[in-house]
Amino acid sequence: MKKNLVALVLCSLAFGAGFGLNNVAFSDMKTAKVAYVDVSKLLAASKTIKSAEEARTKQTKDMLAWYNTASADIKKQSTKAGKDALIKKYEAQLTQKKKTIKDNYAKKINEVDSQLDKLITDKAKGLGYDLVFRKDALLYGGTDITAQILPSVK
Question: Does an H or E element contain 37, and which?
Answer without folding.
Answer: strand 34-37
